[in-house]
Design brief:
heterodimer; A: about 775 residues; alpha/beta; N-terminal domain of TfIIb; Rossmann fold; Dimethylsulfoxide Reductase, domain 2; 4 domains; seven-stranded mixed sheet; six-stranded mixed beta barrel; globular; disordered N terminus; B: about 220 residues; alpha+beta; Alpha-Beta Plaits; 2 domains; two-stranded antiparallel ribbon; 5 strands; elongated
């Protein structure tokens, strides 16, 4: 293609910083902290005193094209929030959970304490007894290196059963197709939708997510709107009637946890009616006959009974998707947050493959790293000797975490805390992750586990319930306008996050903290003087530019080699340069040889959720509503932003969505607090009675705590009051991935005892 | 000349970027708004047919961002609109823009004075205020008076909606102004555009451009 990076960002043509009247404008990108999965182009306006006055979308950035969501727009207020952590602090171990026992210390002293304790525990018990916990959607790639350079193989999404967010989709797609892919919204091209040869998808399936709010890794949700304006028709699969559902040609309101049944029935229709792409299947797919056999009896009628979606809608959706010249699937969390995530992901992958919607404009296009750069995780993992790697928690339990995903297994770790076998977990590093308030399954367990550790240190932008409960040392983290870094999530662009303001207090970035701590543990593994030095070293390998040069050149660089279609025909997908896909059979595996070798079902499948109206009728009699959670809101990222008044005012309390008919049946009144309960636990949220949610299903918010409430124990910012994960079990799929966060059973009833303990407490 | 905000309530997704962008730009406290997104629905009025609209409504505190449009920028709400469902302009322009489209509403807030004319269209999110290297911008400013001082450094956007210059462009390259490729590529520099294979197909080369620049700069 002729479209190269000089279209918008030729070095020197577009400045990285300029003056507008009294204000200085810094061009860069936003990422974290606070959390986000995207890296939008931003213009940061600062005044003479160095205050951040406003943040706007960068109109010359192809990624977001001048647009921005409320979380970045509110940044001037987020940065100045009075509840921010501003200084390193320590607290004696016996005072864990007590907010008034913190003592301000210097960075040096904080590092000294962490170094001394971690190294002592390492010397006495081995490095593996220290776990390194990290949060999602954060600029903390260096925590890999920190963990492995220290000598521990245990980097993890601690407490998160089945690592049930994106990882199941990622791993299964890697196994089945040999790469990761994403919807082609022209993001590879600097001139976007006008790029020569580009065409928007004709039909886009929005499956189990609301991209407008969730903005998945490297996918700016409103690209869907851009595509709709250019002719894309959408099909939405979601129990809720949201904006996209009302603009969809077909909306299937699926019973949570049953997405695989829809996909299998669509495969059935497409194969039975001979609507699949024969040429693509013949040349590039493996195991079509076995797939056809598997779905032969999975009729739309059968799927309708399972999913509560009318049969004719499933048939219409299958025909519409299969007959589109270009089809694509924007899939989401619903695929991961079922115990049988692999069956679901496999079915959707097969749907994409047999319709030939791969590697062409407006379909699903592969993702690689720009300039060959983004290999941090796996490279760093090589720093550990094989015998150290084998000590990773879950190594013998789940073979798929040995390769590709260098993370310890949360479900196995949960057991290991009890058994202390094969070794006892003794210390934790908690980097910008708020386990007990956010994704932790059975969060009381993580609370007890962390409290029992010999030493806990962590860092975050605000004090969290998790750190308040368990940390002995806390470090204050800078926000993205306060630090230098890079955003390299997608395959086409290297984007500089350019410091626009000095950090508040003594805050330092996640990146900087990892670098400095790393030097303490293992200086040879961290030969860089500072963050900029490291960023330049990293960039130089692929681009020949230093970090300051990148900033001066407008902060962004497109990789022209990534603007390529039909890679599988050109031999660009396999290391041997042969045409085909990077799988054992060289084809997209409808029948997975890899799954088979690991003892998993080699074909797509559907199984009833472990607790459901069908699989556990007795439970259903007592808990007559299907429960789902995890839906994203634009104004808050998971458990964050609760202390930012402007954002909180848009969503002041956790909401339970319940259908008017169910509300009437169970005596629930709109706007009043209700209990959501099952056999494992309960939580209180505010009812919103609305036909937005389907009858028989309730949708609860996740990640709620109250920064304005009493910080000390037992309240811990009221973290236990509204936490729906009280109701979720540790019960991941056979592969180790996927867990039923989104498909449980519950009952809902008015909270008669009132809610003063939540609503009335403290000033917001 | 009255100015307003044209809002497409089919494409407005209710993301509230306009609310926050406006409040930060204009120093409006939490709980008050210069523009506020109202939600209508959802309800099911026929089987499988749903009413759900979001409509940003400007308030008495909206001044159409006079301080921004004076320096050639879009109002803050329009600039940051995620769905690109808002357009600012004179009422006449906006009415013309509405054309045969449906599900649109035109707000005409009252402001203290008229603002400079800035145009941005639906569906063309990249066409926006351009910011160049200060050195280049200054050079162009110096030449103000004889249109724009066009060169290979100028952008396609510089000749779109630019009066006599547009007419001259049309004379040199008949029909091209209406070409969606050009319309949508408003941020591209001519110097870049000529390198594309389709540029030559459309008769745009360094030679033909040079002839056009000479005539345009003599206007």
């Amino acid at each position: 293609m002729e479209f190269t990076r000089d279209v918008d960002y030729a070095p020197g043509k577009v400045p990285g910083r300029w003056q507008e009247g009294d204000l200085t404008v810094t061009r860069g990108h936003a990422w974290t902290a606070p959390g986000c999965h995207d890296g939008c182009g931003v213009l940061c306006y600062t005044d003479k005193e160095g205050n951040l006055v406003k943040v706007e979308g960068d109109p010359e950035n192809p990624y977001n094209q001048g647009r921005l969501c409320v979380r970045c727009l509110a940044m001037p207020e987020v940065i100045k929030n009075e509840r921010r952590l501003l200084h390193p602090m320590k607290r004696a171990r016996e005072f864990r959970g007590q907010a008034d026992k913190w003592e301000q210390i210097s960075w040096d002293e904080a590092y000294d304490i962490i170094e001394e304790n971690f190294n002592r525990i390492k010397a006495e018990h081995g490095a593996e007894s220290v776990i390194f916990c990290w949060g999602t959607g954060r600029d903390i790639g260096m925590v890999h290196r920190l963990c492995f350079a220290f000598g521990s193989p245990n980097l993890m999404n601690y407490g998160f059963s089945g690592i049930a967010c994106f990882i199941p989709r990622m791993v299964s797609t890697q196994m089945l197709q040999g790469y990761l892919y994403t919807v082609d919204c022209s993001q590879h091209f600097p001139n976007r939708y006008n790029a020569e040869g580009y065409h928007v998808p004709d039909v886009l399936l929005i499956w189990g997510n609301n991209p407008l709010n969730s903005n998945a890794d490297g996918f700016y949700g409103h690209w869907v709107i851009d595509c709709m304006k250019r002719g894309t028709q959408i099909i939405v699969i979601d129990p809720r009637v949201n904006y996209l559902a009302t603009r969809a040609k077909i909306h299937m309101r699926v019973r949570p946890g049953c997405d695989a049944a829809i996909a299998l029935a669509m495969l059935h229709v497409i194969i039975a009616e001979d609507l699949y792409d024969h040429d693509f299947v013949d040349k590039w797919c493996f195991g079509f006959d076995q797939l056809a056999e598997r779905v032969a009896d999975f009729t739309p009628a059968k799927a309708a009974e399972i999913t509560w979606v009318p049969e004719e809608k499933i048939i219409a959706a299958a025909r519409m998707f299969a007959s589109a010249e270009r089809g694509a699937v924007q899939w989401g969390l619903a695929v991961d947050q079922t115990k049988y995530s692999f069956g679901t992901a496999h079915a959707i992958n097969a749907l994409i493959a047999i319709t030939g919607n791969v590697d062409k404009p407006g379909t699903m296009t592969p993702i690689f790293s720009p300039f060959g750069l983004d290999k941090r995780g796996s490279e760093d993992f090589g720093m550990l000797a094989p015998e150290e790697q084998h000590k990773r928690i879950g190594w013998d339990d789940y073979p798929m975490i040995k390769a590709g995903i260098p993370m310890a297994h949360p479900d196995v770790a949960d057991k290991q805390f009890d058994t202390e076998l094969p070794y006892k977990i003794r210390a934790a590093w908690i980097q910008t992750t708020n386990t007990i308030a956010c994704m932790g399954t059975q969060p009381r367990r993580q609370y007890e586990q962390l409290r029992g550790l010999e030493f806990v240190a962590g860092c975050d932008v605000f004090m969290t319930p998790t750190l308040q409960a368990a940390a002995d040392v806390v470090l204050p983290v800078a926000m993205w306008p306060e630090n230098d870094s890079l955003w390299i999530i997608q395959n086409y662009q290297v984007a500089a996050i350019q410091k626009a303001v000095e950090p508040q207090g003594e805050c330092r970035s996640d990146y900087e903290i990892d670098l400095e701590l790393g030097k303490r543990f293992n200086p040879e593994a961290f030969p860089w003087e500072d963050v900029r030095d490291r960023l330049s070293w990293y960039l130089m390998q692929g681009t020949g530019m230093t970090f300051p040069e990148l900033c001066d050149a407008g902060a962004s660089l497109f990789d022209p080699d990534q603007m390529v279609y039909n890679r599988h025909e050109k031999g660009l997908l396999r290391p041997d340069g042969e045409p085909g896909f990077n799988t054992p059979t060289g084809r997209i595996e409808l029948y997975s040889v890899g799954f088979e070798s690991l003892g998993y079902d080699p074909l797509p499948y559907f199984k009833e959720p472990p607790e459901s109206p069908v699989s556990t009728p007795e439970l259903y009699a007592e808990y007559p509503l299907v429960f789902t959670s995890g839906a994203r809101h634009i104004e808050m990222f998971h458990s964050e932003h609760r202390q930012v008044e402007r954002l909180r005012s848009m969503h002041p309390w956790p909401e339970l969505l319940i259908h008017p008919k169910d509300a009437e049946k169970y005596g629930v009144v709109d706007g009043e607090w209700v209990w959501i309960e099952n056999q494992r636990g309960k939580a209180r949220q505010k009812a919103r009675v609305t036909p937005e949610i389907m009858e028989g299903v309730v949708n609860a918010d996740h990640g709620w705590w109250y920064p304005e409430a009493e910080p000390s124990e037992p309240n811990l910012y009221n973290v236990w009051k509204s936490n729906v994960n009280n109701m979720i079990p540790f019960d991941c799929g056979e592969s180790g991935f996927g867990s039923a966060y989104k498909s449980m059973l519950c009952k809902v009833y008015p909270a008669k005892e009132g809610f003063a303990d939540i609503e009335g407490e403290g000033e917001r | 000349m009255k100015r307003g905000l044209l809002i497409d309530y089919y494409y407005c997704t209710g993301c509230k970027s306009c609310e926050v962008a406006c409040a930060i730009e204009n120093g409006i406290p939490v709980g008050q708004f210069g523009i506020k997104v109202e939600q209508v629905g959802p309800w099911e009025y026929e089987p499988d047919k749903w009413q759900l609209s979001y409509i940003p409504v400007p308030t008495e505190q909206c001044n159409l961002c006079e301080q921004r449009v004076e320096v050639g920028k879009q109002p803050s709400c329009v600039h940051n609109c995620q769905a690109d469902a808002m357009r600012y302009g004179t009422v006449a322009e906006l009415v013309e823009y509405m054309g045969d489209n449906t599900r649109q509403v035109l707000f005409v807030p009252e402001t203290d004075k008229d603002a400079e004319d800035v145009v941005r269209t639906f569906g063309q999110p990249v066409k926006e205020v351009k910011r160049e290297n200060p050195a280049v911008t200054e050079k162009e400013t110096e030449k103000e008076g004889n249109a724009m001082g066009l060169s290979m450094e100028s952008t396609i956007g510089d000749v779109i909606d630019a009066g006599a210059v547009s007419e001259l462009f049309e004379k040199h390259f008949p029909g091209l102004l209406a070409d969606p490729n050009l319309q949508n590529g408003a941020m591209l520099k001519f110097g870049t555009f000529v390198q594309f294979p389709q540029a030559a197909e459309k008769g745009i080369t360094e030679e033909t451009l040079s002839a056009f620049f000479t005539e345009a700069n003599a206007l």
